[in-house]
Design a protein that fits this description.
By secondary structure, this protein is an all-alpha fold. It has 15 helices and no strands. The longest helix is centred in the middle third of the chain and has 32 residues, at about 220-250.
Length: about 400
């Protein structure tokens, strides 16, 4: 299979799994949980943050262990398949969640989100096998662009159900979409072969490698600095993703149709942003491009705080889309560039660990502030802090020159 075909098959997984992220995490189930399951009560934000933080806490501690095991056994595809199925099954079960079913609504969501997030550890680790380091920005951007295109497709597919107030039916539809378009990766994409070693306790091996990486992290100071910066700025990104639908619905007064338009705008600009900023990153550098993206995020946060009209919040969606596509794609590319090739899956486990750890604190703080003050506007100001700290730490990261991938 040619490099171009490998990249296309790999990016189809991004196309597939964003059906879950847009339908469940960001838009439909997030709004459905607050309005229907939690019956519109302010404590719904707190319940949602508890569910999100619980899923991320579990995934955060699984990711580096699974990443180390996968790196040693060359079993990325096997683990990715398991977590993909886990997400698809529990996404389908959300159909059965109705008014007042807070416990099961959270349990099904937590398992689905664990499957989605844990799977990304292995999906991201395929990137260094697809192309040369000098093309990481472009290829990563293509993957995210495919993801945002997939979001647009699933939004249009679910449009008739949204218009007829059949939100529950959209959950199994998203699961089916995920299943169909993730299949090409498992059927056609081959991972690099490694010799099989019998009689190894992979759990013990994984834990041992994680411990070894932690104790030698000082030897990778530049990479450690980037991961710390990532911990903070992705905190803000994740919190906005998890609460944007609820914020627009509760504070701005968006209807489901308004939200549909809003997220179409976000996904469209994110698609464009992931491609344009991916190309820009290969020209001016990943670090500078990422700093620009975070600057856009910071402006977006303050504009969202002062927004009182729907039109203004559509502008927020436009800016957020550009920042979303570029920040996620560029972060993944810079991580690939900073990571030793032979430890790529193990370090992507730590990348995932810090990203998911950040998704514990941010949403929880937002939920607590929103519930305690009764104001989502005050809660959204907490997000700006994470972007500012992340940008300050990122200034200390040195971007290395591109080198050719080992053969």
């Amino acid at each position: 299979m040619t490099e171009r075909k490998r990249i296309f098959v790999w990016s189809l997984y991004d196309f597939a799994n964003t059906s879950y992220s847009i339908v469940v995490v960001t838009f439909l189930y997030a709004v459905y949980f607050k309005k229907v399951v939690a019956q519109g009560q302010p404590i719904g934000d707190l319940y949602w943050s508890i569910g999100m933080s619980s899923a991320m806490l579990i995934t955060a501690f699984l990711s580096p262990i699974l990443g180390a095991i996968s790196d040693y056994s060359a079993g990325k595809k096997k683990f990715l398949l398991f977590f993909t199925i886990l997400c698809i099954v529990f996404t389908s079960l959300l159909y059965f969640v109705q008014t007042g079913n807070i416990f099961w609504g959270l349990i099904f969501f937590i398992f689905a989100n664990i499957g989605f997030e844990a799977g990304l550890t292995f999906y991201d680790a395929f990137l260094p096998e697809l192309t040369e380091p000098k093309n990481f920005g472009r290829v990563s951007g293509y993957g995210f662009a495919m993801g945002y295109f997939g979001s647009l497709c699933i939004l249009f597919i679910t449009l008739p159900f949204i218009q007829n107030e059949m939100l529950r039916e959209t959950f199994p539809i998203a699961a089916l979409f995920y299943l169909i378009f993730s299949l090409p990766l498992f059927l056609f994409l081959k991972e690099e072969k490694k010799p099989k070693i019998k009689g190894i306790n992979f759990v013990k091996l994984g834990l041992g490698r994680v411990y070894n990486t932690l104790t030698h992290l000082k030897d990778y100071k530049n990479l450690a600095t980037f991961i710390l910066a990532y911990f903070f700025f992705i905190e803000g990104v994740n919190t906005i993703i998890y609460f944007s639908g609820n914020y627009a619905s509760t504070t701005i007064g968006f209807t489901e149709e308004d939200l549909l338009i809003f997220f179409i705008i976000v996904q469209t600009t994110a698609l464009i942003g992931s491609i344009l900023f991916g190309i820009l990153a290969d020209k001016i550098g990943l670090k500078i491009t990422l700093m620009i993206s975070l600057g856009i995020w910071l402006c977006t946060t303050f504009i969202a705080y002062i927004s009182v009209e729907k039109l203004t919040f559509y502008i927020v969606g436009t800016l957020a889309g550009f920042a979303l596509g570029s920040s996620q794609s560029t972060s993944r590319s810079l991580m690939s560039k900073l990571t030793p090739y032979e430890k790529r899956t193990e370090f992507f486990g730590f990348y995932s660990f810090f990203g998911k750890s950040s998704a514990i604190l941010g949403p929880m703080i937002f939920g607590l502030v929103s519930y305690g003050t009764g104001s989502q506007r005050i809660a959204i100001l907490t997000i700006a802090f994470f972007f500012i700290v992340g940008m300050l730490i990122l200034t200390q990261v040195k971007e290395p020159p591109a080198v050719e991938k080992p053969t």
